[in-house]
Amino acid sequence: DISSFKLPGDFLMPAIGLGTWPMRESEASDAVTSALNIGYRRIDTAENYQNEQAVGLGLRNSGVPRDEVFVTTKFNKQWHSATGVRQALQNSLNRLGLDYLDLFLIHWPNPEQGTFVQAFTEMQKLVDEGVIRAAGVSNFKPAQLQVLLDAGLTPAVNQIQLDPERRSAPWQAFNTEHGVLTEAYSPLGRGKSEFLQHPTLLQIAAAHAKTPAQVTLRWHVQSGRAAAPKSANPLRQAENLDIFDFEISTAQMAQIEALDTGAGPFTDSDEFGH
Ligand code: A2P
């Protein structure tokens, strides 16, 4: 069963979650409500997306019990200290209207200041206290992850930008080698039409009576990777969750892997806002 992945403590993370960037306000709350009603059980947000209040509202409006939903958020660079992490968590919980998180992520490593070890050390305490169920990172390169590992700290998840054209195999391999689950953000290549109409994807999609987006998401989960596709549209949300009734062959997996341009994940700046 690849509809979820196991995090430390035998706690399950649904393989597909709703990405919420760059939705705001009613667009974000409506998208969260519809996704949960369709059957999503994981929502991905961030302080930086400025939509946590809307995400919390969408969750309450859905009527789905809080404990059935896996909620992830991420904190900004300004909070990379022990007290900062606690403040960031409290702020996010207040905005979301929740009293615990399933997964809390360092959004960007902020390597210039080298403060992510301090931040992660405190996050580990928050796990022990039960106010976050798991602690992880985002946009961490292998060398940055190594700094945490050297300090005896293992994030549950490293969420990175990853799609068939930006595959970054060495990044995922490094995560896997160290017991860190890889999660793809922008798993559909941001929905660019040149990508979702790539002849290779169209051909594999036709062979399974699926869409290129479904083939791409299935490729992610068959590769042992969680993914958080964003869609504001209930039909596309449903499409993106409907990937558990077919299997991509080894040869087709290789064809998708051959689409890699070597571009790698986006990591050098957070100005982009994601
Ligand atoms: P929309 O919100 O209108 O559905 P990513 O998650 O890689 O960043 O991609 C998100 C982009 O892809 C959004 O523009 C979204 O548009 C679009 N998108 C999401 N799901 C699908 C799909 N199944 N088919 C086509 N486009 C999609």
TrEMBL record:
Residues 16-260 form the NADP-dependent oxidoreductase domain. The keyword Mitochondrion does not apply. It comes from the Bacteria. It holds the Pfam family Aldo_ket_red. InterPro entries: AKR, NAD(P)_OxRdtase_dom_sf, NADP_OxRdtase_dom. Keywords: NADP, Oxidoreductase. Belongs to the aldo/keto reductase family. This is Aldo/keto reductase. It comes from Glutamicibacter bergerei.
